[in-house]
Predict the structure.
Amino acid sequence: MRDAPPSQLRSPLGRAIGLGSAKGGVEHWVVQRVTAVALVPLALWFVAAMIQLTGADFDAMQNWVGRPLPAIGLVLLLIATFYHAAIGLQVVIEDYVHGELARFGLVIFSRLACIAFAVAGIVGVLTLALGAAD
């Protein structure tokens, strides 16, 4: 018996919709690439800023974070970093964890952890930025 051509292995609904076995994944791939591209200039800006602030005391750092552009940049860096991490962790978990319940639990845990770290970082930035006005 010959092997059936790939088009015959798909169901009629699968051929009509055009979805493969994964049914999706393109959105994760695109968002992962967009966040990676956003992280390049944000990370370079952050590294350059930290080099310039080397040896600065707490007041100098607080004054720098208290300016609008650095505060916005730091918040954007935190959001992009933890969103990128959440998507990447989800893909790794879905690829390598085989139990359905374990996979679901780990995806939820990793997503909540990324949200918690992002919120903690943003609160820290806002605390420094608003504290600079004192």
Notes: The chain has one domain: 24-131. Residues 61 and 125 are 11 Å apart (CA to CA). The helical segments are 6-9, 12-17, 26-52, 58-66, 68-96, 100-131.
